[in-house]
Amino acid sequence: MDQALHILLLEDNVYDAELIERELHKAKLHFVAKRADTRTELITHISEFAPDIIISDFSMPQLNAIEALELLAEQEHKIPFILVTGSQTEEVAVDCIRKGANDYILKHSLTRLPSAIKNALKNQEVEREKQLAEEQLKHSEERYRFVVENIGEVIFQTNEDGEFTFLNSAWETITGYTNLESLQKPFTHFLHPDDRAVVFTLYQKIWHNENIGKTYEVRFKAKDDRELWFEINPQILYDERNNIIGTFGSLRDITNQKLSEQQLKASLEEKDILLKEVYHRVKNNLQVIASMLSIQAMYLDDDQMKKILEDSQNRIFSIALVHQKLYASNDLSSIAVDDYFKDLVGQISGLYGGYEVMIDLDIENIKLDIDTIMPMGLITNEVMTNSFKYAFAGVEGGRINVNINKNSRNQVVFKISDNGKGFQEIPDLKRPKSLGMQLINLLASQLNAELTLENKNGVTYTLVFTAKSLN
To answer: Which CATH architecture describes the domain 151-253?
Structure first.
């Protein structure tokens, strides 16, 4: 030992005390010794000398070993105590050990004293470590119990039969059921009737060690018959032999979250219905306007004015078709491009049924929002109308191509072309003169599109742009 061992000798005989010290020196123990033979000296030395071990004779005129042990117990001093006696019986020694002595040595066998001291100190260290571990475990259990009891989630444990064996206070706070009403009862008793089959299947999977994922959402019934939603996280509980003895886990109350989701869903469904009704009415109103223009054209003798009204009708029809598609769609945020343009191109072609023109469509299966598809429809109407009117006079095998695809940069490439006569003079896209070209240029600006016009083997309009919503 690096530090000297403090030994307190309770001995009235100086010669016997010297014998004990001599034996300890022979064993090469590094120690400092003090001697006492009265109660007062014992108390003083305990306080000032702080002995690591006490070696005591059994009987002294003013103090005996039993009294010394009782004093140590009263003052809660846990100091190793070895009885050294020469005349007392083993019954007396055993009585001292019952009172707290660690060992006893006969005076004619002092050679055993050094090893007895070492054993007593070692046992004290083991006892101290054990006590420290117990205190740490107690504090850990107290902290664990505090967390379990104050956490907002229900912590539960069940036996093999699915009966609750543990529930923290959150269970009563949330459900209204006390532990007395809940423990030793099957947890299925508290489930919503419609979810019992689901949970039964879940636990069957757990029992057969199947992977069930982390959490499930199930409904319980509160004591006041309210419907409660919990997120359950069940785990298998094993004993020390790895046998299944039940389950444990947590129940997180998500009732408010579920109610909010249901309210939000109902609100969205209501808004969808209202929005569809708006699209439906807009479409009907546009068709009424188109019909009014058609009736107005019947009373006109000026062919030029009739063509102007006819062009306006076509534009209105292309807009109305967008609202019709939205009304019929489950997704009010976007429209399927291929479906819309098939109908739009078919509608425009139907107005010019006397022309033998083939229509080729190459349209990728994508969806675009209304702010994008509306100008695209109007551009299609303008270009195809011009092609039908002016491109194919004297041309056999007329053809119009409509291509809508994505490029490598995830941009929309929108191309309309014909194999007609083309322009005698290429229009200035920056300063267009005709109303149709002005509209195309304006609509291309709305799309933030790069617009190019090629006048070779017919006319090709190409628009490249980044859509707001492309999927």
So the answer is: 2-Layer Sandwich (3.30)
Q: Using an 8 Å Cβ cutoff, are 428 and 389 in contact?
A: no
Residue 75: alpha-carbon gap to chain centroid: 55
Residue-wise pLDDT for 366-391, tens only, equals 888 878 888 888 888 888 888 888 88
> Could you tell me which residues are beta bridge partners of residue 218?
230
**Interhelix angle 90-99/65-74, nearest 10 degrees:** 10
**Identity at 113, one-letter amino acid code:** L
At 277, which helix (H) or strand (E)? helix 255-298
Q: What is the Rg, in whole angstroms, of the alpha carbon atoms belonging to the chain?
A: 49
H or E segment and range at residue 15: helix 14-26
The DSSP call for residue 2 is -
Can you give 330-350 as a three-state secondary structure string? CCCCCEEHHHHHHHHHHHHHH
Torsion angle of alpha carbons 171, 175, 180, 182, nearest 10°? -90
CA–CA gap between residue 79 and residue 263 (Å, rounded): 71
Give phi and psi for 273, each to the nearest 5.
-65, -45
- The model's confidence at residue 464, banded by pLDDT at 50, 70 and 90, is very high
pLDDT digit string, tens, across residues 171-199: 998 999 998 999 999 888 899 988 888 88
Where are the domains positioned within the chain? 5-144, 151-253, 263-332, 334-471
Which CATH class, in words, describes the domain spanning 334-471? Answer: alpha beta
- Residue 165 has phi, psi (to 5 degrees) of -115, -15
d(CA 147, CA 165): 18
Q: What is the 3-state secondary structure (H, E, C) of 255-269?
A: HHHHHHHHHHHHHHH
Full strand arrangement of the beta sheet holding 398-406: 357-363, 398-406, 412-418, 459-465, 450-455
E strand map for 171-255: 216-221, 227-238, 244-253
DSSP-assigned states of every residue in 25-62? HHTT--EEEEEE-SHHHHHHHHHHT--SEEEE-SB-SS
CATH 3.20.20.450 describes domain 5-144: no
Give the DSSP letter string of 135-176.
Answer: HHHHHHHHHHHHHHHHSSSEEEEEETTSBEEEE-HHHHHHH-
Looking at the whole model, is its pTM more than 0.85?
no
Q: Among residues 422, 413, 432, which one has the least CA distance to residue 454?
A: 422
Residue 154's φ and ψ, nearest 5 degrees, are -80, 125
